[in-house]
Please model this.
Amino acid sequence: MNSTFKAYLHFVLITGLILGILGGCSHKKAYKKALEYEKAGRYVESAEKDLEALDKKSDFTEAKEHLNSVAPMAYQELLGKAENFERNSQWVEAINSWQHLEILLNRFQRQNIHLTTVDTKSRLNQAKQKGTIYHYSQGQQTFQSGQYLAAIDHYKKVMTISGNYLETQRKLWESYMRLGDQKLSSREYAGAVEYYQAALGYTSNPASTNPQIAEAFYRWADKYYTESNYREATEKFESVLTVVPNYRDAKIRREDAYQKALKRVAILPFKDNTASNSQYAQLLTDNIINNCIKENLKYATFMNRAHIDLILEEHKLAMAGVVDPNKASEMGKLEGIHYFVTGSITQVLQQNSAPKYVDQTYNKVYTEKDTAGNAIQKTQPINYRQYTSSRGVQITASFQVVEVETGRYITGDNFTEKITDEASWIRYTGSISDLPEDKQKLASTKPELRSLDLLLGDGLQSISGKISGQIVTLLK
Model:
């Protein structure tokens, strides 16, 4: 017998032993629980735990003997529950108890426990018949008296017991529709939509319900429109069109509400206050515009650069940086603009550090043979010089948003971004292979620092992301 097979056999034996122990524990735990339940007077649960123990270990004598003693009490407990539910006209609960009792008695019989009992099958059928008639009758009465929620509760119980008895499903649809009508007449549009949509679950013909859903959304949209809440009006008119695509004049009104909700934003050229005569301000402006456009905001549109330049020229203005809110408001109203975004670059600092170095020593370990041919380990100090260099930029920019309607600044902020690049290399006159592996690459080539333009571009991109993020948050 080879070692691999022995290991496999050992694994099988140990696994079987563990499973046997676990199995033995589980049937005893179930039996222990059965005793606890009996002591608490919970005979049905006690009997079911005995049955669970016997399912795990069919020859478990203690559980079998205990089940024989507790089974009559479990039967009486469930029988009492079923009959009590019937007396209180709780027919769904009564039916569940009769079904539970029937299942339990069948399980007793499989354990050769036979009790003298009522005819559970007949009692179950009687409960279903009586429950159906009772709840349907109650549903009809409450419906006629306008108690539609109560009617729904009864009709749903009929569906649970007997399915679509005497077109109970249609009764449910009618009840939900009446509730929706009540909410609609009291201008509680959210409630109306909720009940009408619930009614859809009880009809195979959505066309019988969708017009009412559309009407609820339409009136809801009209309410928002009257309140000059054009965004919500747009959303609700869109809901109308989703339900009934050609409902009344919803399409025209949706477009009207949308145009009123839409905000036109002009991001004016940022000003460069650093006297650098660079294109940094233009790059920052373009980045902000592009970032905002990429967000694809539903209720905001951003004017392109050419259009803005034309407007500025027509009004003989060179708006850049911080603008006079009054002038911006006057021009914005003439051009149908809702918000102006202005700003400036206030500082650009550049820094190039001279290379610095540190002398380092590495003890190279190698092996030599002595005169007798024995290997001797030796060390050799390797001296090299490690250089570091860095380049960095610091950019500061600010922005403001002017609301045309009020002529005031509504938000703004300042941002400073630092971008640096570092390089490290080694000068060594000997063989590169003498150096540690992680240092050999540093000795082979001298890395180039990124240019100031590239660092500035990264900084401007970071600032533009922060500025556009605040603009987007304002317009969402």
Summary: Confidence is low (pLDDT under 50) at residues 318-322. The chain is about 60% helix and 20% strand. Residues 3-39 form the longest helix (37 residues). Strands lie at 263-267, 271-272, 300-302, 339-352, 356-369, 375-403, 408-427.
